[in-house]
Amino acid sequence: MNPFSVLDGRVAPLDRANVDTDAIIPKQFLKSIKRSGFGPNLFDEWRYLDHGEPGQDCANRPKNPDFVLNQPRYQGAQILLTRDNFGCGSSREHAPWALEDFGFRVLIGSSFADIFFNNCFKNGLLPIVLAQQEVDELFRQCGATEAYRLTVDLAAQTITRPDGKVIPFEVDSFRKECLLNGWDDIGLTLRHAEKIRAFEQKRQADHPYYFA
Amino acid sequence: METQTLYEKLWSSHVVHQEADGTALIYIDRHLVHEVTSPQAFEGLKLAGRKPWRVSSIVATADHNTPTDHWEQGILDPVSRQQVETLDTNIREVGALAYFPFKDARQGIIHVIGPENGVTLPGMTVVCGDSHTSTHGAFACLAHGIGTSEVEHVLATQCLLQKKSKTMLVRVDGALGRCISAKDIALAVIGRIGTAGGTGYAIEFGGSTIRALSMEGRMTLCNMAIEAGARAGLVSVDDRTIDYLRDKPFAPKGDVWNRAVQYWQTLKSDDGARFDKVVELNAVDIQPQVTWGTSPEMVEMVSGRVPDPAAVSDPVKREGIERALKYMGLAPNTPISEIPVDQVFIGSCTNSRIEDLREAAVVVKGRTKAPSIKRVLVVPGSGLVKRQAEAEGLHEIFLAAGFEWREPGCSMCLAMNADRLEPGEHCASTSNRNFEGRQGAGGRTHLVSPAMAAAAAVTGHFVDVRELI
């Protein structure tokens, strides 16, 4: 996983609530057995005017000019501004894979669905929850300013707006450490292998029916 | 002694290690695996030179990509076939407690075959790379969906990194009306608390209405907990839980069974246990539900109307409704009963168990598919469900009505196989998600109970099933 420390990046606003993971990456692309290459199909049904299938060259597909990520002013965005309950629905990790592959590193919204939120941290993506009025103000500024940018500092847990206002955000300290260092969860967990083994042995003795 | 909720009992009995910020390593008893979310995990494991920690925790099947007809032809889509074959290869290399491959007599939707084979047992932690893993909480398991990185983590370490959830009790009391089922309760709950209402919570379903539900009904309810935003749904153990599991193939036998039952009977929330949030519904208020929009919270009683966005003041909500109505091709204030239906889907991990098929068959018996309905798919949840339904003659009722009786799988719930809607088609579906494009690009899904889906199939539009029987 790529470490994350500070990002100064362009912002793209996706102004709708309950964006589900089916919308983020439609089912036909889940047939891949790889972890990479999902970026061109991010938001496929909203982004393109035709129906997408795996293996297509997306460069030649007709794009929906109304969709926010197709607008010139949001090209190269690394920060996605969203609304309530982003990432709801299916647990598919292909959703954060697609967002990351497209180039996003930070998501800012008023709430995220649990499984999606968790999956982001496994892939070097930082989802940030802010109060509703902070999100509303970011949408307003982003809409009013060409090439709107924010600076996100994970170590300091702050977002800095172009007008100089600093917005603090919360993040679990364990997740923060993992993301700052790009640590592999499995390697970390295996440091506790002895503890896991001892727990397992006791559980097997107390509850043999779970170990058939 | 301090009282505890069921969730707290399950959580505390699985904590292996805890970090200072509360992040815990919890031990995983059962790992359910399917073809879509596992290949990258097996590959990651192999690349890192790691071995699975406990192979006997794994139960696997192919369900998302598998066709539901012409099994003799195999899987025609080469990309789907490769994914299913990759699962075959991975399980052959690694091993499992049980594997039900494509065409196996016990193959089926992972959330149907777990309980019916007794691999889901009370008190377990159950994970699967699939959000509807919450289904298994009907057996007082701590069960939730995980991402593919977590699938790899569980394979490698038998543990999951988790933070403790908050607890919510959804209490439903009283007797359900005629033809009202668990699906209507689930949709009514989501309509009440919203699709993010359960975010951060584990939801326990309790109250006399829930106690009176069959295990199938409880599974339907816990299945939809994720649609309310909760990773886990739960129901405390009672005699019904124990009776369901007795003599299931992988359930314990003899003395071990007795010992297990003794423990399982403790797996209920203590009287007076404190929940972070309590939501109460009266069963008598719950009417047949139909979703009209593109999120499960966009739901109404069958006697109701599609909302008018002009009457909504919150701009984000109003635009959400406008967008949904546009996608669904519906005008504001349209009576639900006037929404035309093109296809009907009876199946999915929500509603493809034997009780669901019986519920639909009661409505269909002696009737036929309405002429305006293009297709009705009945897709049993597993090979065992299919055989049971055929032993009861249910398939003959469906076939006589002009419905299609298919092989088991996820099918048109998510349309990864060939079963899908055409753009613009409306579908009365017993599945769990009405998202844009969920059942096929441009398809329009209306979530309903099996009885309501059957009623739509024989009348051509949504109708209160109680008018038919």
Automatic annotation (TrEMBL), chain A:
SUPFAM superfamilies referenced in this protein's UniProt entry, alphabetically: LeuD/IlvD-like
Ranges in coiled-coil conformation: none
Top EC class for this record: lyase
Known EC number: 4.2.1.33
Catalytic activity: (2R,3S)-3-isopropylmalate = (2S)-2-isopropylmalate
GO molecular function: 3-isopropylmalate dehydratase activity
Domain of life of the native organism: Bacteria
Residue ranges constituting the Aconitase A/isopropylmalate dehydratase small subunit swivel domain according to the UniProt record: 1-132
TM regions (residue ranges): none
Protein keywords: Amino-acid biosynthesis, Branched-chain amino acid biosynthesis, Leucine biosynthesis, Lyase
Matching InterPro entries: 3-IsopropMal_deHydase_ssu, Aconitase/3IPM_dehydase_swvl, AconitaseA/IPMdHydase_ssu_swvl, IPMI_Swivel, LeuD
Pathway involvement of the protein, from the record: Amino-acid biosynthesis; L-leucine biosynthesis; L-leucine from 3-methyl-2-oxobutanoate: step 2/4
One Pfam family, short name: Aconitase_C
Family membership noted in the UniProt record: Belongs to the LeuD family. LeuD type 1 subfamily.
Subunit and partners: Heterodimer of LeuC and LeuD.
Family matches, as PANTHER family: 3-ISOPROPYLMALATE DEHYDRATASE SMALL SUBUNIT, 3-ISOPROPYLMALATE DEHYDRATASE SMALL SUBUNIT 2-RELATED-RELATED
Function per UniProt: Catalyzes the isomerization between 2-isopropylmalate and 3-isopropylmalate, via the formation of 2-isopropylmaleate.
Stated name of the protein: 3-isopropylmalate dehydratase small subunit
Naturally occurring in which organism (per UniProt): Aromatoleum diolicum
Gene this protein is translated from: leuD
From TrEMBL, chain B:
Enzyme category, top tier: lyase
Entry-linked PROSITE patterns: ACONITASE_1, ACONITASE_2
Bound cofactor: record note: Binds 1 [4Fe-4S] cluster per subunit.
InterPro entries cross-referenced by the UniProt entry: 3-IsopropMal_deHydase_lsu, Acnase/IPM_dHydase_lsu_aba_1/3, Acoase/IPM_deHydtase_lsu_aba, Aconitase_4Fe-4S_BS, Aconitase_4Fe-4S_dom, IPM_dehydratase_rel_enz, IPMI_cat
Domain of life: Bacteria
Binding site residues for [4Fe-4S] cluster: C349, C410, C413
Catalysed transformations (reactions): (2R,3S)-3-isopropylmalate = (2S)-2-isopropylmalate
EC code(s) of this entry: 4.2.1.33
Domain Aconitase/3-isopropylmalate dehydratase large subunit alpha/beta/alpha per the UniProt entry, residue ranges: 8-460
Molecular functions per Gene Ontology: 3-isopropylmalate dehydratase activity
Pathways per UniProt: Amino-acid biosynthesis; L-leucine biosynthesis; L-leucine from 3-methyl-2-oxobutanoate: step 2/4
Cofactor: [4Fe-4S] cluster
Keywords recorded for this protein, A-Z: 4Fe-4S, Amino-acid biosynthesis, Branched-chain amino acid biosynthesis, Iron, Iron-sulfur, Leucine biosynthesis, Lyase, Metal-binding
Role played: Catalyzes the isomerization between 2-isopropylmalate and 3-isopropylmalate, via the formation of 2-isopropylmaleate.
PANTHER family (alphabetical): 3-ISOPROPYLMALATE DEHYDRATASE, HOMOACONITASE, MITOCHONDRIAL-RELATED
Subunit composition and interactions: Heterodimer of LeuC and LeuD.
NCBIfam families in the cross-refs: leuC (TIGR00170), PRK05478.1 (NF004016), PRK12466.1 (NF009116)
Family (UniProt): Belongs to the aconitase/IPM isomerase family. LeuC type 1 subfamily.
Protein name: 3-isopropylmalate dehydratase large subunit
Species the sequence originates in: Aromatoleum diolicum
Gene from which the chain derives: leuC
